[in-house]
Amino acid sequence: MFDDFAQPGAPGTPTFADIGWRTYEPGRDAASLAAVFRAAVNELAASHYDAPQRAAWSTSADNLSEFDARLARGVTLIADYAGAPVAFAQLFPVDHVEMLYVAPGWTRRGLASALIARLEALAREAEASTLDTDASALARPVFERAGFSRVAEERVRRGSVSLPRFHLCKPLRAVSFSG
């Protein structure tokens, strides 16, 4: 789901340089991003979340029109390869990373880090003083390498299932605490 380091693959394997970047197109991208989301949750999060937790989490993409509406708010950026999305992230509102998912097979190529950097730049342009997120146990290290610090560990309910997550924050502007 989340990646961190750009690593070279075997000859002929697509690399970071082969990735195209674009914004979300409502009505057009929802189904393909729902597929990336479900695959990331069900396959990549298995090391941190059990099957009932992953099933509850992945249901948030079941209603495609609601998922489309959720992706259409704020700014959703997509990394694609050969016209197919391989990662996406959302900034909503201007100071919160709402979503960050990388397709299995595309992890550890720098996509998540690049998406975080792009969203951070947008937050800075909007003059946000901080950038925060509610990250999964899998995503937490990626955000921490990007300069985020843990504020709190939380539990969120999806139906009858409880999922752990981490509220993380990164200051974007220097703050003076002297009078």
TrEMBL record:
Gene3D superfamilies: 3.40.630.30. Transmembrane segments: none annotated. This is GNAT family acetyltransferase. It comes from the Bacteria. Pfam families: Acetyltransf_10. Residues 35-173 form the N-acetyltransferase domain. It comes from Paraburkholderia tropica.
